[in-house]
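User: Here's a structure from my thesis project, written as structure tokens. My advisor, Dr. K., wants to see whether a designed sequence matches the one we expressed. Can you design one independently, without my sequence as a hint?
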């Protein structure tokens, strides 16, 4: 593997950088799986509320169907040099049952409120259990910055 000249960050710096990206970025890759149909991956808009990732997708989408059958998911921010991977269990909220604070924050961030659409949507909430973050080969060791839902120091 070719090195990039990146300087190894400490865990606290990786956590800070990861949280900044979770607040500031728009898209996340969502990986789900169905026992009969296999893996499914799609980019979705997301909101970080300080504890969980909130996404929205059509109620009949493969992502929504997969999460109902198998709630374990992996999320990835879209940068192959500044990698952030989150793992957790997803929970679906029909668009008319989502907590108001999450729906309002989502609508404010994107200028779009799925609750006003004719077709049904679901909000998907993922509370991370594991977070990995690294920039290049120097940071592969120690890339876990959250374990069992607790940020590491």
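Assistant: Designed independently from the structure alone:
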């Amino acid at each position: 593997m070719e090195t990039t000249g990146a300087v190894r960050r400490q865990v606290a710096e990786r956590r800070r950088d990861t949280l900044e990206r979770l607040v500031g970025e728009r898209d996340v890759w969502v990986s789900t799986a169905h026992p009969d149909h296999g893996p499914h991956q799609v980019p979705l808009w997301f909101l970080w509320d300080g504890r969980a990732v909130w996404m929205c997708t059509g109620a009949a989408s493969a992502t929504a169907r997969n999460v109902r059958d198998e709630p374990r998911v992996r999320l990835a921010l879209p940068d192959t040099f500044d990698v952030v991977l989150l793992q957790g269990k997803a929970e679906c909220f029909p668009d008319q049952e989502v907590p108001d604070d999450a729906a309002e924050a989502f609508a404010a961030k994107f200028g779009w409120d799925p609750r006003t659409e004719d077709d049904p949507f679901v909000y998907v909430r993922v509370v991370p259990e594991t977070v990995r973050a690294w920039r290049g080969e120097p940071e592969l060791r120690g890339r876990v910055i959250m374990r069992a839902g607790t940020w590491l120091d």
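When you compare it with your expressed construct, this may help: The chain has one domain: 11-151.
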